[in-house]
Amino acid sequence: MYKETQRFKQAWIWVILSLAGLLILGFFGYDIYEQIVLKKKLSNNPVSDTELIVIFLIVFLFFLFLIALFAFARLTTVIDKTGIQFRFFPFHMRYKQYAWDQIAKYELIGYHPIKDYGGWGIRFGKMGKAYTVSGNKGLQVHLKSGKRFLLGTQNVEEVKTYLSQHFKHSH
Question: Which residue range(s) make up the domain with 25?
Answer without folding.
Answer: 2-72
